[in-house]
Specification:
Elements lengths: L2 H22 L21 E13 L8 E18 L25 E8 L1 H15 L3 E6 L6 H14 L5 E6 L8 H12 L2 H12 L6 E7 L2 H14 L7 E7 L5 H9 L7 E6 L4 H9 L16 H7 L3 E4 L11 H4 L1 H13 L8 H4 L3
Parallel strand pairs: 1-5, 4-5, 4-6, 6-7, 7-8, 8-9
Antiparallel strand pairs: 1-2, 2-3
InterPro entries: AB_hydrolase_fold, DUF900_hydrolase, UCP033909
GO molecular function: hydrolase activity
Pfam families: DUF900
Length: about 375
Amino acid sequence: MHPRGRTAVSMHVAAAVLTVLVSASCSMRPLQGVLVPSSEAVEAASQVPILIGTTRARSSSDPGEMFSREPSSEMAFAQVTVSIPPDGSRKAGEIQWPLSPPGDPRKEFVTASAGYLDRTEFGAAVSSAAKARHLTKTLVFVHGFNNRFDDAVYRYAQFVHDGRLPVIPILFSWPSQGAGNLGSYDHDRKVAGRSGSALTELLDTVNANPAVKEITFVCHSMGCLVTLDALRSRASHGGSVPKLKNVALVAPDIGFDEFISAVGALGPRRPRIGLFLSQDDTALKLSKSLAGGTTRLGDINPQDEPYKSALAQQKILVFDLTHLGGDDSHSRAFGEVGSVMGMIKQRLAQGQQLGEDPSRTASH
């Protein structure tokens, strides 16, 4: 077969596989109305308030969507409180999507409240959450490819709840198409590459809040492109963010060499960086083929060279999640958040420092 013919066939197969991979986890959720608040409350359910900064435009067609896949030139703000059913009625690590909105809070995730905020109201909401819950730490989550706005909100609520995270949760949602096809993958990658400045803006807003003492970033998959760009932008302008202490990259869909170069450019005053990877990440292996064979950071073997030495030189904390198993290797950290938090706590209890050999981190 002619090389061009083989390329066309391989791209066709890749597109088909990509569609299956990215749509499987969203196949059970309703297409509309998820963020319409439910009037029914269940005493044993847990309420998880999510504060939001987004560069998506407001939805004009579905009030239960709030924000669409279309980009906005200005940052918008909102707050959504997600009700999560009692622990005995659900499997931890999973989102129990309502079969039809607004859903049954006894056994499904439902929206308890949702509303738009302006910038001043957003800052006041952060301060109010800090005071009411006696918290000073925020966790800013940046979602990945093929995420609608409601996908990102519910996934983050699940992550915070199942991890029992003592933080003020803040979501940064960039305008992913929320569609599982090759064209959307290419589109999302370009949009992600242009979204770093908006994340920097949100970071500055949170950093300026006196109620916040510490900020951690968690990015997933393609969202790590957004995060690295934001960090590079802040570093290139000679400014540091004293409150930004940690950055966790989960299954990052980034070229390994690109990551090492970006981290090196951040300078010595950068936050602590943790890498959460799975060597069997099927989605990233496909992404590698779409990227012309460029190795993706999120599915390397951290024991192999040149990865081991490069990560050690840059003092990257490595968490290999391969052994955790599960059906969705690309989102393993969210589905197995209890185990992941246990790994982190064990590492801290052992007093491991950033400069230690990453080979020690892979075994825990």
